[in-house]
């Protein structure tokens, strides 16, 4: 269920008042993969699927973390939200943190990795699944213990691996961090795709996103709000650029153009606090889909909403979302 989590909201409101600036140079790219070995894990004993469950603990530049799995366990997607908050809300919904098998990271910006080491240090069964280049960027750009490498399992883009009974394939995305990626996650006959923090939708990202039954897509900013907003010009250019973020119009146009009848849920993620509103993001996506003749539900599970072709829901910035059984 949705919760206010006032304590964490106050902490993370404070986080949102500063903006990290990341620079990229040739030293940010590692070429030596010789020490890394792809880990392909079989289905864990007892991993069978009775219903895919999804929840977001926060989505935006103040912190990102989500759970995907079922009552037997699952994975965390990113680690930018305080573990106390994450563990509390998992337990409230019947999932012990001991059942979480690992953390997959999309990129090395602070709002996605801030609590990664704290999570693995406090819950030593957890492993961090990321590429060697992403781990290298994390260690270079953040004040974090090098012991985090002891918990790393190396993965590589376009090479599937298995975790918690799900098949993961990482794919390239366009953003100004180190080795950015989305994930295509196959669970039985369904595919859940995570596509966040993208300046543009590349061909490879589009390939995976267009196959999703459940799509978590960035809808970061409204162009008019950004253009007339308080950000300095260099930051506006960064957000608009090919290595920045997706605006509502681009996200909604992509989903509407690539809609297929097997697409059942669209989760809008990483909405800007300054340059967007949930209402604007939802309206853009709903209008684009309805223009294609697609009926849109609001994700509330009301009788009227359930009969629509696709559900569209904006993930809250500071709070835990509804707990979805997909």
Describe this structure in words.
It is a single chain. Mean pLDDT is 88; it is low at 1-47. The chain has helices at residues 6-15, 83-92, 110-113, 116-122, 132-141, 203-209, 223-228, 233-240, 248-257, 278-291, 303-306, and strands spanning 53-58, 65-70, 73-77, 100-104, 128-130, 152-154, 161-163, 166-172, 181-187, 190-195, 214-218, 265-269, 296-297, 310-314, 324-325. It is 28% helix and 21% strand. The longest helix is centred in the C-terminal third of the chain and has 14 residues, at 278-291. Helix 9 packs parallel to helix 10 (278-291). It is globular and about 50 Å long. It has an eight-stranded mixed sheet. A seven-stranded mixed sheet has the order 6-5-4-3-2-1-15. The protein is an alpha/beta fold and 326 residues long. It has a single domain, classed as Ribonuclease Z/Hydroxyacylglutathione hydrolase-like (Metallo-beta-lactamase, Chain A, 4-Layer Sandwich). The chain contains eleven helices and 15 strands. The protein starts with 5 loop residues before the first helix and ends with a strand. Helix 2 links the parallel strand 3 and strand 4 (100-104).
């Amino acid at each position: 269920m949705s919760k206010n989590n006032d304590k964490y909201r106050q902490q993370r409101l404070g986080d949102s008042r500063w903006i990290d600036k990341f620079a990229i140079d040739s030293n940010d790219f590692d070429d030596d993969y010789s020490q890394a070995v792809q880990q392909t894990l079989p289905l864990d004993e007892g991993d069978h699927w009775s219903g895919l469950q999804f929840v977001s603990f926060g989505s935006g530049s103040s912190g990102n973390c989500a759970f995907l799995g079922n009552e037997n366990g699952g994975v965390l997607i990113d680690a930018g939200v305080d573990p106390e908050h994450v563990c509390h809300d998992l337990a409230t919904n019947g999932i012990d943190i001991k059942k979480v098998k690992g953390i997959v990271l999309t990129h090395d910006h602070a709002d996605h990795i801030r609590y990664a080491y704290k999570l693995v240090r406090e819950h030593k069964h957890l492993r961090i699944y990321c590429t060697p280049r992403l781990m290298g960027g994390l260690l270079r750009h953040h004040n974090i213990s090098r012991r985090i490498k002891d918990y790393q399992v190396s993965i590589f883009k376009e090479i599937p691996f298995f975790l918690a009974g799900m098949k993961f394939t990482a794919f390239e995305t366009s953003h100004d961090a180190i080795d950015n990626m989305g994930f295509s996650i196959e669970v039985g006959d369904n595919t859940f795709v995570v596509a966040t923090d993208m300046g543009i939708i590349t061909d490879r990202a589009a390939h995976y996103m267009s196959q999703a039954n459940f799509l978590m897509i960035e809808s970061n900013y409204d162009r008019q709000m950004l253009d007339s907003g308080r950000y300095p010009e260099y930051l506006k250019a960064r957000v608009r650029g090919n290595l920045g973020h997706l605006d509502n119009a681009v996200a909604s146009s992509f989903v509407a153009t690539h809609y297929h009848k097997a697409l059942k849920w669209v989760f809008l993620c990483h909405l800007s606090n300054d340059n967007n509103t949930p209402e604007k993001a939802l309206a853009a996506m709903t209008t684009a889909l309805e223009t294609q003749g697609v009926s849109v539900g609001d994700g509330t599970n009301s009788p009227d909403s359930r009969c629509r072709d696709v559900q569209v829901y904006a993930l809250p910035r500071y709070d835990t979302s509804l707990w979805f059984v997909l």
